[in-house]
Amino acid sequence: MTTPYWERFQPMSGARPPRAWFTSDAPMLDLSGDWRFRWSPRADAPLDFVEPGFDDSGWAALPVPSHWQLHGYGAPAYTNIRYPFPVDPPRVPTENPTGDYRAAFSVPSTWRGQRIVLRFDGVDSCARVWLNGTEIGITSGSRLPVEFDVTGALGWEGTELLAVRVHQWSSGSYLEDQDMWWMSGIFRRVTLAARPVGGIEDYFLHADYDHRTGSGTLTVEVDAPARVTVPELGIDAAAGEMVPVPAVEPWSAESPRLYDGELATEAERIPLRIGFRRVTITGGVLTVNGRRILLRGVNRHEFDPDRGRALTAATMLEDVLLMKRHNVNSVRTSHYPPDPRFLDLCDSYGLYVIDECDLETHGFVPGQGDVVPDNPADEPAWRDQLVSRMRRMVERDKNHPSIIMWSLGNESGSGRNLSAMASWTRERDPSRPLHYERDYTCRDVDVYSLMYPSHAEVELIGQRKEEPLEDPELDARRRAMPFIMCEYGHAMGNGPGGLSEYQELFDTYPRCQGGFIWEWIDHGIRVHAPDGEYFGYGGDFGEPLHDGNFVADGLLFPDRMPSPGLLEYKKVIEPVRISGEDGGLRISNRYDFLGLSHLHFVWSIEDEGIEQATGWLKVPDAGPGQSVVVPLPELPPASGEAWLTVRAVLAQSTPWAPAGHEIGWGQLKVGDAPPRGTSPRGPVTATAQEIRVGPGTFGTADGRLRRLGVLPVQGPQLDVWRAPIDNDRWFSRDSVELAWRDLGLHRTQHRIDEVTAGPDELVVRTRVAPAATRLGLCTTYRWTADGGRALRLTVEVSPDGDWELPLPRLGLRMALPGELHNIEWFGLGPGEAYPDSRRAARVGRFRADVDELQTPYVFPQENGNRAEVRWMTLRDDAGAGLAVAGDPSIDVTARRWTTEDLDAARHPLDLKAGERIWLNLDHAQNGLGSASCGPGVLPRYRLSAVPTTFTVTFRPVGG
């Protein structure tokens, strides 16, 4: 039996040697556009279409680049670890969806006499290519380029016919189990280039920098006689020579200085963008240009909700601008090399890059990094393909100053083939360190990398006190390495929590040099439904095997709107920190290279959220890692709780943000609210029908609030349930959802034990408990009339039984008329905040519509909490409603559906606005953590069931 090409260990044939990606003045045709397309359910469809005379008039049109699943051919499927086909390498199913493409084009006659090269930048997963009926070659390696010499197959008269067969599954699919949608097709650009005689096939640019002298050297290795010119530096030299540069401005992510140059022969001119920089590991610390850097990074899959991985240049730029504006300084290209144009943007705008090979075999190694039988990382038959993939990435991307490390791949266990990849890379490019997380012995790498370690583990690593390896030599080698978390802070749904505690460890221990949040964007595919649209995840497209919404774990929503998690991350990693100290302000510079002179510092003072004065703060320059203390500005007197806010903003526009863009901020409390006076309690009156306490009307039998003034109310009662966030859910590492549900916290019952109407106090004693358990929460509500129109409630909660679980929340829930949709509050805002994710919220006075408080997580869950609210009002359009005040504060959530509705929903479209607004007034909530893929909630943020008392005041407000 002949093995079909798509099942061979090394299916490629006919390809040219890999080389650097570049543009030049040599002519090129972009073949993107609508191609003729035919889809077949099997790989062995007839090959009749390869002949130029074939009639394809009955075929459909499909845009290239694109994925055919997003155009109605088959369906996208999401799995995280599991292969969606039987694991029998290198075999794949006979049911192997296959797309046949045909494109007609003409070649300019001026191209005659030159070598003509056809280039595919990305085809998923395996392709066979013909030109004018002549077979050109075969390619695999979906996120890697391939070039074919098609000179001899061109007709040169009239129309040329390109035919391509693409298979969804191939042997290469075993190497591409990369926690993303399985989608197929020609998804990156296809180009045709004329390579001139005497042109440049490949070059390797070395631009070194010595931070001790400020000098550099420039060497360009090239395969043809050529000259290098850099007019700004006065360079005009033969390629291959090492040219000293006595004084040069270095490239870094903070100052991405690039020099324009040119590499030229008589036949071809290539523009160069040269960044001088040096990456080293010195004293166990990763340095750029002689300085320790701190990676404030994100993992980035290529994704668009409508185009999948077929990104446009505009979308790539949008990603880079969003990263820079949110203080991100680095990207790990998980888990494959990106479109090369993205790396150009990283060079220009300033982002450090870990460029990762197109390799993941996670389905072979669901556990840790042990050698696993048949795993391609160790099986000799796969060696050439793995080394080839590494070579294709390194050769393509070697000239980018933004790339500071090469990564061998992701979650592929360990083995001899990874060692071969590392060995080849070290020989080809010794200037960059190697990364690979699953090499726990660090035998083949230069940095120690882990995914999702706990805070305690990171601290031990920072102290170089981690658990030792069995091999003393390897242990000593690893212990001397810098430590980077290639993935942490799993940004799935509402979260992650605990980011600031990680950042404190990075600041404390030089060995701990930051990491990369998983991940940049939710991979939700836009679905148009009859009643609206939503973003689909695993299982929404009929997949028999899928991993649900685990694909929606990004800092951006699918439409690239920043999530609360991104805003929190921006604040946590801000490179300028502003805090109070000794009657003044401490300004700490956390940049790696920049001083503070590029920033302006703007202050404002607000008295109970109302601005009183603003001005500019004079801050002397401070170098990286330094801080200065400046006096407070002259502030007006405050009558209430007053806060000074100081914002660090760009003094001048940059390529990525306008002048005035906020980099960091800090707040200092400069005035206290006056103490609350005690008002005489009003009388409590009771009849057979109702009980009256100030503006409140209560039921006689159950003691529940029915009206507040004229406002109908479904009275507040104890609430402990929240719609589980992804970090609570059954699949998380610290799952509490199943235990919560098993206990019955989502279906508690309220027993009224006693209703006592005293002369000036209504006391309602209850026990709140789920069925089938002896556990309960004995709850007493004490109602008094406070100051005539105010109604004061003190809640006393005493746990009954041995509560081992944390509570989801502890507070009150009540229902109000739906007309009360205008909310104003004084507290933390403007966005949501939770116990371990609230750095991005600042004290102020904010206004919104209730609908604007909702956060549209791809999978609906607890959201929208406003924390530390001193007071809030809910009003109708005429201004009538109610005011609520905490003592001293409460957390507030308001929405048009119940928690039960939110819990039952699977997409935001499932949530239908009702006639009421459901208001939660919480004493506290459990933290968020990162347990959907990482550590759970830190102990300090766990909401334990302990005796608790809190007070809330209600007051009707008129129109």
Structure description:
With 959 residues, the protein is mostly beta strands. It has five domains: 5-195, Galactose-binding domain-like (Jelly Rolls, Sandwich), CATH 2.60.120; 203-280, Immunoglobulin-like (Sandwich), CATH 2.60.40.10; 292-570, TIM Barrel; 574-671, Immunoglobulin-like (Sandwich), CATH 2.60.40; 684-957, Distorted Sandwich (Beta-galactosidase, Chain A, domain 5), CATH 2.70.98. The termini are far apart. 50% of the residues are buried. The model has no long low-confidence stretch (mean pLDDT 96).
- Percent helix range: 10-25%
CATH architecture of the largest domain: Alpha-Beta Barrel
Estimate nothing, just give the exact number of structural domains: 5
> CATH topology of the largest domain, which one?
TIM Barrel
Mean pLDDT: 96
As a percent range, the share of strand residues is 35-45%
Instruction: Count every beta strand, where a strand is a DSSP E run of 2 or more residues.
Output: 60
How far apart the termini lie comes to 85 Å
